[in-house]
Design goal:
By secondary structure, the protein is of the alpha/beta class. Helix content is about 30%, strand content about 20%. The protein is built from 13 helices and twelve strands. The relative contact order is 0.14.
Length: about 350
């Protein structure tokens, strides 16, 4: 590692997120922790295809506070990734289009920004860790060049200063001999180390919010645990908010503060992580938890699968999209979609027959 004296880059790496500039002009340290850093309201995204209109997101709403970890879970095709890519307007258009809603980041609606203003936020105030680092990293560029490129795009640093910062970030995420590894190509790293490089890139400009899109899916369980602990440590040290996308409820239990469950482009349940695991209310959430193996289960206990398949999202869906797979569905479920309402403090569910209160009808 470089032996240069204290520099602005080294000091910047140790600067907490709370001291970064605020988009609304207020001193960042004055930003209340109870006020949402990110607030998504009634977000609706559609894809206009040759086969018809795909209703990928259907008016989802959630918020994330400074230092909070929100996990968004659900089966493949539930809208998890489309929801977070919509935040930074990374949906390919055409065919995709955000047709309604607002995305407030520190009070500024990201949907109203022009491309130049949004580019300053992407990779800066908001960073993304993608699912597969091997396809996300450029295979013909050294990892150091890829990290310093992002740093220099957002900060007024020379190439030498950006390299100093990149070395320090690689060291922070646990990569041995970071000064040497900076000159390696992605294929020279193991899967777990490549994911650490992706985390280093996400942290390179001290973001206030990190979006992690299933970052541990392709890793074995040992490396998964290491990555989760790394993210938890960095979140605690830097005060960064995290949106963690996953279908692995075991990982979510160790990491998240709040969990939002998605199905067919809707958020069907949201609650603090301990509350959700102890008292799931939506039949879909109950099904997800019942499908997990348990250490306290009796020998040869069969896992309970959720019957049927997720719906095709072409065209308008009538009623609750989970109704065809739900053992508690009645006529009203097939005719009218239930509103997301509170059933307990900070615990909301969209179900006519939720398992916590007994239902609304």
């Amino acid at each position: 590692m470089s032996q240069e004296g204290p520099s602005s880059t080294a000091q910047a790496l140790e600067t907490p997120v709370s001291s970064l500039p605020s988009m609304d002009g207020r001193p960042p340290e004055a930003w209340p922790e109870t006020t949402p850093l990110l607030e998504v309201k009634d977000l609706t995204t559609k894809f206009y295809t040759a086969d018809g209109v795909v209703n990928a997101l259907n008016g989802i709403s959630y918020s994330v506070r400074k230092g909070q970890c929100l996990a968004i879970v659900g089966e493949s095709g539930s809208g998890k990734t489309v929801g977070v890519l919509s935040i930074l307007r990374l949906i390919q258009s055409p065919p995709g289009k955000i047709v309604a809603g607002s995305i407030l980041f520190k009070g500024t609606d990201l949907l109203t920004l022009d491309d130049a203003a949004l580019r300053k936020i992407r990779g800066g105030a908001i960073s993304v860790i993608f699912q597969d680092p091997m396809t996300s990293l450029n295979p013909v560029m050294r990892v150091g060049a890829q990290i310093t490129e992002n740093i220099m795009a957002h900060e007024a640093l020379t190439p030498k200063q950006a390299r100093v910062k990149a070395v320090e970030i690689l060291g922070r995420v646990g990569i041995p001999a970071p000064a040497k590894r900076l000159d390696d190509y992605p294929h020279q790293f193991s899967g777990g180390m490549r994911q650490r490089v992706m985390i280093a890139m996400a942290l390179s400009c001290s973001p206030q919010l990190i979006i992690a899109d299933e970052p541990t899916t392709a890793l074995d369980v040992t490396i998964q645990a290491q990555i989760v602990e790394l993210v938890k440590t960095l979140q605690s040290e830097l005060g960064t908010a995290v949106i963690w996308i996953s279908h692995d409820l075991g990982v979510v239990a160790r990491l998240a503060d709040t969990v939002a469950v998605m199905y067919a482009g809707h958020i069907v349940e949201s609650a603090p992580v301990d509350e959700l695991y102890a008292r799931p209310a939506h039949p879909y959430t109950v099904g997800l938890l019942n499908s997990l193996p348990r250490l306290d289960a009796k020998v040869k206990t069969k896992l309970q699968a959720i019957g049927g398949l997720p719906p095709v999202l072409l065209g308008e869906l009538r009623g609750c999209p989970f109704a065809p797979r739900c053992a508690f569905a009645t006529d009203i479920c097939r005719e009218q979609y239930p509103e997301l309402l509170d059933v307990a403090p900070a615990h909301s569910v969209a179900c006519w027959h939720d398992r916590l209160t007994g239902g609304r009808v």
